[in-house]
Amino acid sequence: MLMHAPRALYIHIPFCTNKCHYCDFNSFVLKGQPVDAYLDALESEMKQTVEALPPEIIDTVFVGGGTPTVLTPPQMQRFLESVRRHFPLSPNVEFSMEANPGTTDIDKLTAMIEGGVNRISFGVQSFDNGLLERIGRIHNTADVYRSIENAKKVGFTNLSIDLMFGLPKQTVEQLSDSVDKALQLDLTHYSLYSLKVEENTLFHKLYERNELPLPTEDEELAMFLVVMNKLNAAGYKHYEISNFALPGKESRHNSTYWRNEPYYGLGAGAHGYARGERHLNIKGVQPYIDAANKRLPRLDTNQISDAEAMEDFMMVGLRLLQGVNAESFGRQFPGHTMEGVFGEQLDRLVRDGLLEAIPSNGGYRLTEKGIPLGNEVFGAFIGVLPVASE
């Protein structure tokens, strides 16, 4: 498996203005939180991280949350300076930050762009105000338009928005209208995710009480096909199950995950993967601060066997519509081939018409039939190999 230092960096800012009804991310309502102490602890973790695993060059940075844009402009400036101080960024780094519409005024966007951020991903979710209220978002469509306009005004050209489908009482027509309005913004990238009802969320409680009116599977499939057809027709390349981009504007950072490559993960509750080891950081804000000021703030660390890494390679790699190829598999796992390890699963998925072989590179990719059934394909590689095998 790949043992070089990561070239991708993820940093978690766990603060939000409020908690959305569907969200199970490691996030905390901002009011009363020790934000400056958190930024101090984050810098301490940065310092310890680069001492423990010195970076060569960082090609991509992704700041997620929470909502990183709840930081004030001075906090944002300070935070971004600390990133540049500790990590050597490539001259053509892709530096992304998640944002919530309504939390990015001109001053904050200026601090972001001056601090090196060059790509923003806005969590829009829908262009239907009633639906936004129903899922616990506190922004409205006016905030979306204003936020995008301000971002373009200060010089951002690489902008993405997230939309969701399969939401309570959402119709195919509502989703179609949201996609049309999203396309009118003329952005470089769109991500479209179906709702997953996660434990420890308000939606899960409602679901358990049979009070969450979700679309049927057929309606959700119809929504996915509407999304695919509209974005493809508008010239956006469907490059990953949930992601569409103009040519050359694919998310380079997220592609690190989909290719099962290493990445640094810093902040409360952040995951990282390097030198064959995955870690999870302490999740609570104050416990994270206390730990990071003394040591690397690990909650859990696991050595990943070749068997687990191979399964991960197939599951995440097949999310990319270009699929997985023999050269990448052989580079990560010398002495092994995909057919040698997963021949039975690959044969069955090809026979079922969900995967197709790619003769030019010895790889496999989802078929048109397999794209909407991706989870069935990815699940075929879970638990196939004995974990202890090396």
TrEMBL record:
SUPFAM superfamilies: Radical SAM enzymes. It is found in: Cytoplasm. InterPro entries: Aldolase_TIM, Coproporphyrinogen-III_oxidase, Elp3/MiaA/NifB-like_rSAM, HemN_C, HemW-like, rSAM, rSAM_sf. Residues 1-237 form the Radical SAM core domain. Keywords: 4Fe-4S, Chaperone, Cytoplasm, Heme, Iron, Iron-sulfur, Metal-binding, S-adenosyl-L-methionine. The keyword Nucleotidyltransferase does not apply. The keyword Methyltransferase does not apply. Pfam families: HemN_C, Radical_SAM. Belongs to the anaerobic coproporphyrinogen-III oxidase family. HemW subfamily. Probably acts as a heme chaperone, transferring heme to an unknown acceptor. Binds one molecule of heme per monomer, possibly covalently. Binds 1 [4Fe-4S] cluster. The cluster is coordinated with 3 cysteines and an exchangeable S-adenosyl-L-methionine. This is Heme chaperone HemW. The lineage of its organism: Bacteria, Bacillati, Bacillota, Bacilli, Bacillales.
